[in-house]
């Protein structure tokens, strides 16, 4: 539950470098896009932030397959290197007062360790580093509150969270009398197979499904094909981390080629879906509630039409 904080109405003049797409979206949702002076290579929403200087890059080969990316990530981390590079000279030029990053996953985005090492003795002034580490929906809302506090925009933070909670309450209310909930597996990586953990199981539950194979608040686990096959969920949603729908479709054959995939209940009942993991499910910012609405549309298409189909998700027929 959100704790109401004292009102503060100052106008922040802090220069912000955000090295995480989610925190960039939080800053913009708080009405402080004008304070952003630099972003990461992954920051692409709202559209206007693409014009800002990009302070990071990734070591992956463009267009690499899921398996190639997985191997490269493990190889880099084994050598105790970072998956990402930070443009220290650019950050020095931008002279930020605050740098936003994350400590949740070394694979997902620039990490706290990367930022601390990059900023050491770099700037002419002390820059505050704010690192988020969300594992649940509640953590995401706490991060919004924290950033709002640090930027003297507590009123805006309160209003944003109240709005997000209201949207989820509408879904909960419409589904409160549904007892027979379908089982739902959200696939976060295709090769090797990984199911979506952290905040996703809770999102599935809010949207009226029964999440399987992952635990709320725990990291996303790798699973074998045999485990998924044995679970045989009613609904399967493929939403790879960092992939949009088009990118997922290019590699969907990896899933379709699994022995006996066509015999799964979800496939036979035409309840196989692809969702945009990059923009929605894997991004721990305000649009995480859009993801809950997407799940509600997928699980209960007769009860919910929010308008995401075709953009945020699509049904995939085998």
Could you characterize the architecture of this molecule?
It is a single chain. This protein has 318 residues and is an alpha/beta fold. It folds into two domains: 16-133, 3-Layer(aba) Sandwich (Rossmann fold); 178-309, Nitrogenase molybdenum iron protein domain (Rossmann fold, 3-Layer(aba) Sandwich), CATH 3.40.50.1980. The protein has 13 helices and twelve strands. Strands 7, 8, 9, 10, 11 and 12 form a six-stranded mixed β-sheet that branches. The protein has a four-stranded parallel β-sheet with strand order 2-1-5-6, sandwiched between helices. A two-stranded antiparallel ribbon has the order 3-4. A hairpin with a 4-residue loop joins strand 7 and strand 8 (194-195). Helix 5 (137-150) packs antiparallel against helix 6 (154-175) and helix 6 runs parallel beside helix 13 (288-299). The longest helix has 22 residues, at 154-175. The protein is globular, with a radius of gyration of 20 Å. 43% of the residues are buried. The model is unreliable at 1-9 (pLDDT under 50).
Topology:
Blueprint: E1 16-18, H1 21-29, E2 36-39, E3 56-58, H2 66-78, E4 84-86, H3 88-94, E5 98-102, H4 112-119, E6 128-132, H5 137-150, H6 154-175, E7 183-189, E8 194-195, H7 200-206, E9 210-211, H8 225-231, E10 235-238, H9 245-249, H10 253-256, H11 265-268, E11 272-275, H12 277-281, H13 288-299, E12 313-315
Parallel strand pairs: 1-2, 1-5, 5-6, 7-9, 7-10, 10-11
Antiparallel strand pairs: 3-4, 7-8, 11-12
